[in-house]
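Module 6 notes. Inverse folding takes a fixed backbone as the condition and produces residue identities as the prediction. Think of it as a translation problem where the source language is geometry and the target language is the twenty amino acids. Below is one complete input and output pair. Work through it position by position during the lab.
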């Protein structure tokens, strides 16, 4: 016996598509594609990693410029807590 699937489809919700150009229809199909959504998720994940890496490298360069190329030895640090 097949399981009954609840359908909340309301044709009025799609009235805007009557006057939509071809590009709009294409986008409606693409954005619903599981494969497309998976690719976008992967892209966003990778982009976030790249952005974090760039920030890390920038921060490292700034710190090097502030303290010199030799760095600061922990034993000679004068930071008080």
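Target side of the pair, the amino acids:
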């Amino acid at each position: 016996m097949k399981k009954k699937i609840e359908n909340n489809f309301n044709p009025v919700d799609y009235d805007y598509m009557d006057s939509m150009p071809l590009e709009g229809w294409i986008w409606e199909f693409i954005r619903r594609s599981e494969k497309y959504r998976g690719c976008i998720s992967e892209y966003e994940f990778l982009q976030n990693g790249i952005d974090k890496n760039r920030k890390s490298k920038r921060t490292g360069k700034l710190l090097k410029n502030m303290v010199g190329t030799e760095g600061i030895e922990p034993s000679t640090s004068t930071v008080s807590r």
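Reference fact for the lab report: Residues 72 and 79 are 11 Å apart (CA to CA).
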